[in-house]
Amino acid sequence: MATALVTTLVCVGVSLLFLLFAGYKENDSVMAHAIQAWDRVVPLIREGPLPKMLPDDSVKDIQVVNAQGKVEAATPELTGKGPIATFHADKANVRAERVLCPPQGLSGCSTVLAFKVYQPGGFWVLYLATPVVAWYGSGHAVILAVVVSLLVIAVITGWTFRDLTNALVPVNAIRSRMAEITATGLDRRVPVPKKYEEIRLLAETVNATLDRLETAYQQLRRFTQDASHDLRTPITAMRAQLEEALMHPDHTDWPAMSNEVLAGVERLQAIVTDLLTLARLDARAPLDRSPTDLGALVGGELKRRGCRRQVVHDLEREVFVDCDRLRVTRVLGNLLDNAERHAASRITVVVRRDGPTAIMEVIDDGAGIAPEHREIVFDRFTRLDASRARDAGGTGLGLAIAREIAEAHGGTLTIEDSERGARFVLRMPAVPKGEMVFANR
Question: Which residue ranges make up each domain of the chain?
Fold first, then answer.
């Protein structure tokens, strides 16, 4: 409809221009015939004798009126009739033109041209009556403009309708397939057309989005299953202990049983706390950033924290980062917790600067992590073999939380090669010293 409307407007504009041009050409043709008749009759007037009846080759209505206002000659249709007009050109001009409706002796409107022809006894007037030319020329021009416009509108509209129909076929196929995709059918993909590059790119983008959605959904399902298992395990254990204690109250060591139940509650609390932390990180909660000396922050946390293993540190000072101090402290705590569970005897903590990057390393001397497992350990509730499996005090979410915090700061948390044990490396953008001086001022 829009194409038809635009095409119609364009055709109307072009047709108007064409009709104006046709009218101009028609009027020009009439004037040319009048000039031809003038060229033919004027020599007859001047040379004489003037015949009473003039030929009507190009103009049918011609009269020659003498200085006394008497008709000296005329074409057959005006023979025996009086002058068709009484006006003539002024002194400064030879020709005058008026539209008379009708001229004397004629019917209908005509354009009358009056030419002055100077003779010894005074000027004579040559009158030529020509049809009035409409602004659009003739009816044939109007018919031609209408027919051509309708043909162009029909062709362009039909062509556009065909192309749009063909283009919408893959769009409708994509829409139908998208309507069929549900949570139980995320493996389905929309068809990718071979033609129409824009629609092909749209289909490929939709399929890529569905790939990411399916991956995220599978991760969510695994996360939900693992979370429900980790929550159900301590709950089941506490329920069994309480039921057994109630069944045999006289044979129950109530203080020991209470301590066991309390340990289960603490584990549940740790899991829920970590789940809430991940939920806030997933929601992209804003960071409370401030310029911080990373070496000083790590050193203070190591002094405050008591570790079961020997901790060796090499902390470079004035390594400034723009960070949320509490969350970076959480990263360090989670890495130290992980290192304590798997270190044989010693943990090494390093803070250094490498160009525009601030680096913190936590290294243990345990069994290490195989290269193929170095990304898996950052998944939520991931379990590896017994050498790196979390103990009863872990929630399985610490490394996932640490990586989320690192990425929220525009950094990375990876596991890199080391001579022995696991080497966790946190990289964050460092604040240039010049900017720190300016900030302090």
Answer: 2-139, 221-282, 289-440
Pairing of strands 95-100, 122-131: unpaired
- Candidates 4, 308, 324, 321; CA nearest to 164 is 4
Distance in angstroms (rounded) separating the CA atoms of residues 109 and 132: 7
Q: What is the DSSP letter of 264?
A: H
Q: Which helix (H) or strand (E) holds 376?
A: none
pLDDT in tens, 128-141: 898 888 888 888 88
CA atoms of 350 and 436, how far apart (whole Å)? 22
Decide: 268 and 235 in contact? Cβ < 8 Å.
Answer: yes
Q: Distance between CA atoms of 167 and 197, rounded to whole angstroms?
A: 10
Tokens of 83: 């002058």
pLDDT at 226: 67
Residue-level pLDDT at 237: 84
Look up the CATH number of domain 289-440: 3.30.565.10
Q: What's 132's DSSP letter?
A: P
* Residue 331, pLDDT score: 93
Task: State the pLDDT confidence band at 434, using cuts at 50, 70 and 90.
Answer: low
Q: Is it true that the peptide bond before 102 is cis, omega within 30 degrees of 0?
A: yes
Task: Report pLDDT digits (tens) over 153-180.
Answer: 999 999 888 888 887 888 888 888 888 8
CATH number of 2-139: 3.30.450.20
According to DSSP, the β-strands at 310-315 and 346-354 are parallel
Distances 188 to 144, 235, 339 between C-alpha atoms, Å: 56, 38, 43
pTM of the model: 0.51
